[in-house]
């Protein structure tokens, strides 16, 4: 569980996050949504410990990153997995080497132990046998699955995903969403996803935080979002004609 209390973040005179408080739940897919420029990436970077909040606190199962020493921060960072936008695989490394990378960085496991774990996670994301392939030899959806395997190989307590299905076709996007949700539940991870994708909101939004101009304007989940009378959210989530029809049907209990 990650507890965020009154987080502000400024760059010089400009305040980007203006006092955000929320709780991200363990074993759930928590989504951060909001229009371009709302502050989602800055918030995600604060949650990753890449930016320190100017004010307020973020605690990870009781540990406040800002007040930890170097050792404590390193340990906490090792408990975080990250799926970057566009996968961010190392092009010159094979799938196996990409997935093994965090184990080489953060553990003292033997090559045999690392390989066993790599094969376990590759199997979990349905990429068994793809070890020797290079990123350029596999599809975008497969690259994303490699990125997920790499993010979970070190058994993180916290998983952060920045636009995990950007650039994927709708069917593959849903498969990736569902895979992240399944892995989150199986391993009881606190997963936070920065998303633009309204399909994801309605499919896996177990906890949704809607940011607007650096403030948390609404929070809830996919089962209640259609009931909101907040015009900003209605216009954002249900922006297309199709989604407007979906909302109407939801309101009519269809
Ligand atoms: N390192 C930085 N220094 C100064 N300003 C920054 C920095 N990073 C982000 N900002 C500013 O913070 C604001 C919010 O940016 P952010 O990237 O968090 O938005 P976002 O909600 O993620 O948008 P998008 O959906 O387009 O990615 C922007 O005005 C941006 O210019």
UniProtKB/TrEMBL annotation:
ABC transporter domain segment(s): 2-238
Residues passing through the membrane, by range: none
Name of a matching Pfam family: ABC_tran
Single GO term (MF): ATP binding
InterPro entries: AAA+_ATPase, ABC_transporter-like_ATP-bd, ABC_transporter-like_CS, P-loop_NTPase
Domain of life: Bacteria
Coiled coil: none
Keyword list, A-Z: ATP-binding, Nucleotide-binding, Transport
PANTHER family attached to this UniProt entry: INTERMEMBRANE PHOSPHOLIPID TRANSPORT SYSTEM ATP-BINDING PROTEIN MLAF (PTHR43023:SF6), PROTEIN TRIGALACTOSYLDIACYLGLYCEROL 3, CHLOROPLASTIC (PTHR43023)
Protein name: Phospholipid/cholesterol/gamma-HCH transport system ATP-binding protein
Natural source organism: Mesonia hippocampi
């Amino acid at each position: 569980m990650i507890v965020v209390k009154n987080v502000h973040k400024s760059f010089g005179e400009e305040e980007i996050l203006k006092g955000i408080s929320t709780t991200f739940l363990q074993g759930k897919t928590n989504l951060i949504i909001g229009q371009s420029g709302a502050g989602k990436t800055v918030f995600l970077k604060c949650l990753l410990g890449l930016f320190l909040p100017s004010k307020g606190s973020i605690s990870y199962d009781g540990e406040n990153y800002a007040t930890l020493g170097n050792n404590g921060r390193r340990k906490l960072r090792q408990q975080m997995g990250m799926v970057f936008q566009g996968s961010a695989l190392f092009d010159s490394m094979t799938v196996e080497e990409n997935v093994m990378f965090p184990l080489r960085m953060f553990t003292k496991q033997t090559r045999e132990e690392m390989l066993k774990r790599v094969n376990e996670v590759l199997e979990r994301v349905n990429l068994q046998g793809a070890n020797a392939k290079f990123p350029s030899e596999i599809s975008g959806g497969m690259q994303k699955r490699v990125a997920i395997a790499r993010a979970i190989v070190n058994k993180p307590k916290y998983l952060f995903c920045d636009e995990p299905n950007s650039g994927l076709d709708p069917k593959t996007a849903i498969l990736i969403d569902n895979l992240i949700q399944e892995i989150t539940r199986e391993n009881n991870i606190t997963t936070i996803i920065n998303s633009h994708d309204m399909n994801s909101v309605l499919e896996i939004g177990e906890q949704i935080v809607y940011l607007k101009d650096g403030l948390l304007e609404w929070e809830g989940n996919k089962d209640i979002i259609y009931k909101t009378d907040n015009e900003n959210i209605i216009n954002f989530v249900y922006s297309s004609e199709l989604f407007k029809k979906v909302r109407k049907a939801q309101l009519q209990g269809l």
